[in-house]
Amino acid sequence: GAVVSQHPSRVICKSGTSVKIECRSLDFQATTMFWYRQFPKKSLMLMATSNEGSKATYEQGVEKDKFLINHASLTLSTLTVTSAHPEDSSFYICSATPRNTEAFFGQGTRLTVV
Amino acid sequence: AQSVTQLGSHVSVSEGALVLLRCNYSSSVPPYLFWYVQYPNQGLQLLLKYTSAATLVKGINDFEAEFKKSETSFHLTKPSAHMSDAAEYFCAVSSTGANSKLTFGKGITLSVRP
Lengths: 114, 114
Prior knowledge:
The complex is a heterodimer of chains A (114) and B (114). Chain A has 114 residues and is mostly beta strands. Chain A has strands at 4-7, 10-13, 19-25, 32-38, 44-51, 57-58, 67-73, 76-81, 90-96, 104-105, 109-113. Chain A starts with a strand and ends with a strand. The A-B interface holds A 4, 6, 9, 32, 34, 41-46, 49, 91, 93, 95, 97-108, 110 and B 9, 34, 36, 41-46, 49, 90, 97-107.
């Protein structure tokens, strides 16, 4: 199956700093990628749809200035958590879909803000 | 609008016993339905998907699910549980195709007793 790679898998940062998470489709091109956030023992909540070459589409309630998404190429989308605070600590997962198939997920990034 | 309901948060079965994880959906259009499994601190792996073909869908590791339109259900079953099946299971729905954003249920934790 298709491979989606997410990096880093774990990151600890200080409150007030910014963190960038990368999501790469390794063996296919993805014009669209999705970013999800998962709270402990909770489901995945869609944060935004990342569109190659254009602005991301954010879900209601997601701060676009807090969670910056850049989809600069057909194989890479990045999520930057700006001015991170402890409440931003979470598990972030991206997904991408080769044409007409199911979504493939990255392995997730555990963000801890201290 | 679309939604997924997974009743209960935890199911415990004995090794070798039948696994039944329930999922009900709501969708204004014919849905695409998915079951994913998640192991701790990892991304999601697709178990199986329904995309308007056969109503009984077979997936990996002997899992299967049956789409029942009249009951708006897509329950996941496995005849004989293995210890390695212990994980978090998510049902998800998409109304616009396998390559679009997913709405997830809240997930069910499956425990397998020796």
